[in-house]
Design brief:
binds phosphoric acid mono(formamide)ester; Rossmann fold; 9 strands; five-stranded parallel β-sheet; about 325 residues
């Protein structure tokens, strides 16, 4: 087992072996996070810049915490406090961060492809924290990590992703990871938000919620991503909820042991009823917690670490 990648840009380009290396490394870090002393010196002396030019709660805080747990110095930059508001280009901002001797950049940006672009112009590792409607690789990794914790192997498992697939980077990253892991994935939602061409990615597409949810072992809800939609894709939010919102009746169609997932932020009463979001089948907050260990793994490996050093405990004082 050996990690050779400098950047983490997409799950589309990762092999199954690489996904498993990240999951194993994250599992080892999760054990460390359960100890009274949660910090390891693995990235001591390194500086990580979290460049978040789009809003974020979970991803940004999890990357901040992950870097700190690895003993790195971390600097967070957001759109409002950066000189991008004065007309500075992404290229100039990133090159200035590198000139300030940062060792790694974690970037969230509204433009698909911006992490790939930075990886081509910078010498330091680049990690994609969500680029437009393209990919959100660490979210896909933490989602599949959480599913594996709950279900074991995902091979042949029936997993439904429900909602605004078209504009979702989370859906794309999960599709790439889940298909490599052998899961049986069905996408469901209004036809305008779940185009049939997604079947080219090795998943099923359905517009019949009842048959899609029947016996599913995981349902992952996605919110409507208004910020990326330039026109209306359904008559009203109320109509969307009445046709595709997850409520108690619809949740009863799932496999009795099914788990309910959501990458957040959730819109209560739109794509999911509050009682389900807070109910015993929900693993939404487990996903958030697992996001720290998975991001520790991503930072550690892209900084040149190897899974066996964490699995063997070499990252400890
Ligand atoms: N899931 C996710 O990306 O949430 P944030 O936008 O809050 O980071």
């Amino acid at each position: 087992m050996s990690w050779t990648r400098k950047h983490l840009l997409t799950l589309e380009e990762l092999s199954l072996d690489e996904i498993e290396q990240i999951h194993l490394t994250a599992g080892a870090f999760k054990k460390i996070l359960g100890r009274s002393v949660k910090k390891v010196p693995a990235l001591r002396g390194k500086t990580i810049v979290n460049l978040f030019l789009e809003p974020s709660t979970r991803t940004r805080m999890a990357f901040d915490m992950a870097a700190k747990r690895l003993s790195a110095d971390v600097i967070s930059v957001d759109a409002a406090s950066s000189s991008t508001t004065k007309g500075e280009t992404l290229r100039d901002t990133a090159q200035n961060i590198e000139a300030l001797n940062a060792d790694m950049i974690v970037i969230r940006h509204a433009a698909s492809g911006s992490p790939l672009y930075l990886s081509r112009i910078l010498d330091i590792p680049v990690i994609n924290a969500g680029d437009g409607a393209h990919e959100h690789p660490t979210q896909g990794l933490l989602d599949t990590f959480t599913m594996k914790e709950r279900l074991g192997s995902l091979k042949g498992r029936k997993i439904v992703i429900l909602g605004d697939i078209l504009f979702s980077r989370v859906a794309r990253s999960n599709i790439h990871a889940l298909t490599k892991m052998g899961a049986d994935v069905t996408l469901v939602g209004p036809a305008t938000l779940v185009p049939h061409w997604f079947t080219d990615l090795g998943v099923k597409v359905s517009y019949d919620l009842r048959s899609a949810l029947a016996d599913a072992e995981v349902v992952m809800l996605l919110r409507i991503q208004h910020e990326r939609q330039t026109s209306s894709h359904f008559p009203s939010l109320g109509e969307y909820t009445s046709m595709f919102g997850l409520n108690k009746t619809r949740a009863s169609w799932l496999n009795p042991s099914a788990i309910i997932m959501h990458p957040g932020p959730i819109n209560r009463g739109v794509e999911i009823d509050s009682e389900l979001a807070d109910g015993e089948r929900s693993v939404i907050l487990e996903q958030v917690t697992n996001g720290i260990a998975v991001r520790m793994a991503a930072l550690y490996l892209c900084a040149g670490g190897q899974p066996e050093h964490v699995l063997g405990g070499d990252t400890q004082d």
